[in-house]
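Figure caption, in words: inputs first, then the predicted bound structure.
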Amino acid sequence: MDNQQLLTMVTQMTLEEKVAQLMQLAAPFFEGAEGEGQITGPMKSMGVTEEMVRNSGSVLGYAGAEGTIAVQKAHLKKNRLGIPLLFMADIVHGFKTIFPIPLAIGCSWDLPLAERSAEIAAREAAVSGVHVTYAPMVDLVRDARWGRVMESTGEDPYLNSELARAFVRGFQGQNLREDVQRVAACVKHFAAYGLSEGGRDYNTVDLSEWQLREYYLPAYRAALDEGCEMVMTSFNTVDGVPASGNTRLMRKLLREEWGFDGVLISDWGAVKELIPHGVAEDEAEAAYKAIQAGVDIEMMTSCYVHHLPRLVREGRVEEEIIDEAVLRILQLKERLGLFERPHRGADPEAEKEIVFCAEHRAAARELAEKSCVLLKNERGVLPLARGQRVALVGPFAQSGDILGPWSWTGSRKDAVRLDTAMKAAAAEPGDISVAEGSGIEAMTEAQWAEAARAAADVDVIVLALGESSEMSGEAGSRADITLPAAQLELLRRMKALGKPVAVVLFNGRPLDLRGVYDTADAVLEAWFPGSEGGAAIAALLYGDANPSGRLSMSFPAAVGQIPVYYNHFSTGRPLGAPDAQERYVSHYLDLPNEPLLPFGFGLSYTTFIYGKPQLSGKIMTPDRPLELSVVLTNAGPAEGEETVQLYIRDWVGDTVRPVKELKAFAKVRLAAGESSEVRFTVTEQMLRYTHQNLEFASDAGQFSVFVGPNSRDAEELRFRLEKGPVTSGIRLQGASLGNNQHEQMGSEMR
Ligand code: BGC
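Bound structure (beta-D-glucopyranose present):
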């Protein structure tokens, strides 16, 4: 159908039909769905009639080829104009083949594999009847107390943006109409949800527009630049107004400034939540504010269906606004090819073959191997030698709870557990003795006695510790992010046996590792590694694979430092050398300023040596970028992969500038003894940032470029950016040019 035909369809719809198209309901409302008619709890109070369901536009959280086909068929029989339903679901890090959680994928820094994970998730979801995934979640995160950091790819705007693009490419492919084994992506949660105060979920967010543009918006923008079809609003406030009723954010910035013309959906119940937020008196006002802001679909509440028709008839809402929202939804259905193929990719036969197939599981394993981060490795504990006797102890030794939150379609019983994989990887299965040792939150003396027996006669102890998946994810905030006391006690007692101890951590957030990092000899951060997690970890522990993950979020020295992140400003009183003993500087009396482990950090079983980096010149101009080269040598015993990271510092800006900002990275695989020259082009575009007047531009002046293995240990080189007129041999500095000059320099709106 062309746009004219879609417009005609809109004119044929009654006002009630149009408004129902904007409502999204869960499957129990629909004929033919599993659980049909089981409308309980808050769903009951929605007061949704049969007629509204018949005219509704989309279904939330339903998958399965046969089920979705049955629902679509029944719907098309009843819907007067034959408008198909959209099936949307949270396919966040895999469908049945579960990949590592997004924070772990962030730590892989592997864009092709991230893209492939989304492509596989799309393929499995699409053959199971899903059309749209509520992903990628690209909220920038700095507070590990917030349980949803596991859904994000971390604290850096550049890395998040690159991953956002990779996910969108993987989900959507090139052509959604032709390629029915892809799904439309919905970037979320717009905007700045990651900044919930105190790390408490659903809490207030308040930040300057400058900070919003500089750090928080780039990843959403990157997803949209990559063609992401949909956007989801966030639960939080932005500038005092909840996002779902925020006209400045949605209509002005997203739609008018960025030109986003796709479908904007509210988060679950977020339209009605304008009432408890205290910006709408009742459902009618909530509907009014959300539709004015530009929210097309109301997820799981019914303010629109109950109130918009009357608001239109009373002349308070223009019917044109409703028509536009309906048209956008019909256009999305058209781009997905649903008018011609209402069942699209749903295919019960393909579903059996494709979902959780060996090829997909192999990709999940590869990404899990690349997502784990080796945080510490002393006394040569890792890799384990074949033939060593190993005690595998801890609540995650035999657990299938390794998929992580947001894996509703995955099955824990299909996950490869660590004990199974370790026994398969060892020279003899009998080399591994297994005990639980403790639960997640409590330890009994019987558990301890069993663990002590398992460890009595071994060479090395591997402790599998962590948080259950319920301890992170949505509504999974924690104020104390240390490991539960029972597990710390288990570690302490195990260590007291005098044998080398390696800890493998399963968790959804950077933890406060006091009691772990200082006690264990080795620490491998495995996150929630997904369906093939056990196999990936066993390969890493035995050295069949070499750890290559690098942290995409800093690990605090203690929870009291949070928010702690590498790209902070220097303040007027930066902390000097650690032994400077100054009081009146920006610091804590009882904690260092630095995190325990910085952004970009990760160890390997081999040693990478960086040569002296070289810069092609000391002066850059907008049309003369600089080349940076550095020779990287694998001087250790094993083949390995290094992530070479490039950071920038702008020494004098119109606004304050971060002490370091990631601008590029390269993943380099080298055999033992091999060297390679790694080259980067450092461009003027990399030096642009948001000015006081919100323009995005660079300033002439002094810069540093850093290259190295992480955000802390990078080697620094200086250069100058020159632009603009020369006065008596001295070039004017951008900082003193004023705003007009920035305009002449050619700015780029973000
Ligand atoms: C979450 C979203 C999710 C939606 C639909 C909400 O509670 O915040 O991330 O996509 O539910 O399941």
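The CA atoms of residues 210 and 694 lie 6 Å apart.
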